[in-house]
Design brief:
Elements lengths: L3 H15 L6 H17 L4 H15 L2 H4 L4 H17 L14 E6 L6 H14 L4 E5 L7 H12 L3 E2 L7 H14 L4 E5 L8 H14 L3 E7 L4 H14 L3 E5 L8 H10 L3 E5 L7 E3 L2 H8 L5 H11 L2 H12 L5 H12 L4 H6 L16 H12 L3 H5 L6 H11 L3 H25 L13
Parallel strand pairs: 1-4, 1-5, 2-3, 2-4, 5-6, 6-7
Antiparallel strand pairs: 7-8
Length: 445
């Protein structure tokens, strides 16, 4: 996950600050030196780091902090505020046209995931009640048009194309006309990329821009390329004038330097981030939530949104009722686990919980392979065993272990943990008997 290394180091620095009753100028400066090193190691642009530290130092080495009752927390608040400012202060959304069609020009270099991201964005826009159209203007890269058609069919958004023999400017013009005739209100134009920035690429994009007059020009960059992504953003912005950035593969970049640098260097906001390969895994970028996650304060709003999108409310209520009566079984456990898995990698979910840093969980397994093993064990049980674990004797355990590819110790561990959980719920349910408040809800309900 992005920022894992940076998050761990910053939390270590601030833990030391919070342990001190009062802070001196020297304490603050030592801490900020560690913050500076952590940011540079995270591949944040050097000038950005220099300005960032200077701003924090100006605010932190003053009476506001040094005379505060909780000076360590005050410094953390200042760093949090400045991280938010660095990444854009507030969420930046696509500005749709008040009437008529909203043309959006998608640009970027080859390899950044532009075509797939264009499909992801169309899917997201469609979920907001819009009627998007994809227009295939990449006539140079082999199979680019076919790729866009495939992505379009997967998200159920139509694709307009004229093959690979027509000039991209003419395709863009015709696509706009097609959208007008077929009542589409958003047109996403997938343009050609190059392996590097050159005059030919920019000239073609300028011609398309002049012809379709896009409401938004969105640059797709690969977070994994670090400062190269920032340099690409700066070049495209200088030549074309972009309105925002979509950063792909942020889930695979544990440094996050590009995400922290791009706004400061280009003065253009990150609007969306790609957090996985699925076509649903494109998320609006919230600077305040990201700053909170970096500092180990979690992202409760993001967690709630993921839960609302992926967890069946009826099943959740049914499970809560079963837990109150201590009646839940392995079928319920499996169903709940599969719903949690649909929210994304478990490590990312843990990072959204305040105070939880999966890098500091030591030997505790938090990866999806562990969930897959648990799932395999439960699926190797018979229906009777899942409904009533008490019938599982040694011979049954051997069969379950063999069927799931695990050893008996893992089967025993899962059954023991499950029984402890069920016993705790039974005890808790007993304690709640006689309570008259109908507003009470279990902490996980």
């Amino acid at each position: 996950m992005a920022f894992d290394q940076l998050s761990t180091k910053l939390q270590d620095v601030f833990k030391q600050l919070k342990s001190k009753g009062k802070l001196t100028d020297k304490d603050v400066k030592v801490a900020l030196r560690e913050v500076k090193l952590a940011l540079l190691e995270a591949d944040v642009n050097f000038k950005v780091v220099k300005d960032f530290i200077k701003t924090i130092e100006t605010r932190a080495v003053g009476e506001e902090v040094l005379q505060s009752l909780t000076p360590g927390q005050q410094v953390i608040k200042i760093v949090n505020d400045e991280l938010i400012n660095l990444m854009g202060s507030t969420q930046s959304k696509i500005v749709f046209a008040t009437k008529g069609i909203t043309p959006i020009l998608m640009v970027g270099l080859q390899g950044a995931g532009k075509t797939t991201t264009t499909g992801k964005l169309a899917n997201l826009i469609k979920s907001q009640g819009k009627r998007p159209l994809l227009v295939a203007c990449d006539v140079y890269r082999p199979a680019a048009v076919d790729q866009l058609k495939k992505v379009g069919s997967q998200v159920h958004v139509p694709v307009f194309d004229m093959g690979t023999k027509v000039n991209p400017v003419e395709i863009a013009k015709a696509g706009m006309e097609y959208a007008k005739q077929n009542n589409h209100d958003v047109v996403l134009i997938d343009t050609a990329g190059r392996l590097h920035i050159d005059e030919t690429l920019m000239d073609e994009l300028k011609f398309i821009k002049k012809e379709v007059k896009p409401q938004e020009i969105l640059l797709v960059v690969d977070a994994m390329t670090g400062q190269d992504a920032v340099n690409v953003a700066e070049s495209f912005n200088n030549a074309l004038g972009i309105d925002g950035v979509i950063m792909t593969k942020l889930d695979g970049d544990n440094r996050g330097g590009a995400a922290l640098s791009v706004k400061a260097v280009t003065n253009k906001p990150i609007k969306y981030v790609g957090m996985g390969e699925k076509l649903s895994e494109l998320e609006p970028f919230h600077p305040d939530r990201m700053a909170s996650r970096i500092l180990g304060m979690g992202d409760i709003l993001g967690l709630i949104e993921k839960a609302q999108q992926n967890i069946d409310e009826d099943k959740a209520r049914e499970l809560e009722a079963k837990m109150r009566k201590a009646e839940f079984n392995f079928d319920d456990f499996l169903d709940q686990m599969q719903q949690v898995k649909s929210m994304g990698p478990i490590g990312d979910i843990l990072n959204m919980i305040p105070g939880m840093n999966k890098a500091k969980l030591g030997d505790i397994e938090v990866d999806d392979k562990q969930l897959a093993r648990i799932e395999a064990i439960i699926l190797s049980m018979t229906k009777e065993e899942r409904l009533n674990p008490n019938v599982i004797n040694m011979s049954r355990k051997k069969r379950i272990a063999k069927g799931s590819g695990c050893d008996i110790a893992e089967v025993n561990r899962l059954i023991k943990q499950f029984e402890q959980m069920r016993g705790m719920m039974k005890q808790f349910s007993g304690m709640m008997k006689g309570k008259k408040s109908s507003k009470f809800k279990l902490p996980f309900g």
